[in-house]
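REQUEST ID: PR-0412
SUBMITTED BY: lab tech R.K.
PRIORITY: routine
TASK: structure prediction, single protein chain
INPUT:
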Amino acid sequence: MDIFSAEAVSKQYANHKALDKVSINVPESSIFGLLGPNGAGKTTLIRIINQIIAPDEGSLTFMGRPLQPNDIALIGYLPEERGLYKKMSVGEQAMYLAQLKGLSRQEAFKRLKFWFEKFGINTWWNRKVEELSKGMQQKVQFLVTIIHEPKLLIFDEPFSGFDPINTSLLKEEILAQKEKGATIIFSTHNMASVEELCDDIALIDRSRVILSGTVRNIKKTFKTNTFEISFNTFDGELQSILPPSFRIISESQDIDHRHARIKLPAEATPNDLLRAMMPEVTIYSVNELIPNMNDIFIQAVTQQTGNPVTQS
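STATUS: complete
OUTPUT:
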């Protein structure tokens, strides 16, 4: 079941088409990656989901019905641009924001005490926000995003400004929120985090969805039938023992082994590769080279534009 869907959503700003008939489906209790180059339309879609702006066309469905104004109470949003008040104390501001999300003062204090202890930030309560680093401020804002236990969480570049230890802490908590039943829409340029966290993705480029589906199926679609094989050293050329249609991409050698990356024709299998090589050499390992999400991102966007793409 999908907790959220957008159907043919469009948004125009003056002479700029920010979204052009964008459709996405976000499965319940999943982590959904919303990806794309800068300026692709991701932030516009996130603002529409949060009802900060309205679409010009299209429909939005939340929990099986049209998205309604009061649904904002069921959504937690961590924007890329943070918005804490610099002169307020951390505790005072956290209490204020938690109560804005519908919690009583007593319940807000109880939950914040739990989260401050869990994140080891009790000593921050009376400090001014301006005294905290960017990463520390972000940790506080993360807590107030999840404090009301929303059904849908939207994180826009949540790891920006974090060191590896705090990044790992946030990743663990995002996964924990999923385990508790929350659904997460996760926008990032970090493709390693996408592979680690996301179940499904939609890739937006130039205002349109150009790729969508489960991470597993997308990686399968972009496979090139290329294998890395390690074998014993031998006198002779590797291509001489392979069928002509098997293309050697690279070769290397260390003290004990030779290594090669070999692209097979579409109809060939790893068994065909082994049958060709085993009469001549000893095979130590064979691994299929699966493209990572970073390579897929670049390939998909480049195919659309015809130009190389950068992600930041």
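NOTES: The longest helix spans residues 164-179.
REVIEWED BY: pending
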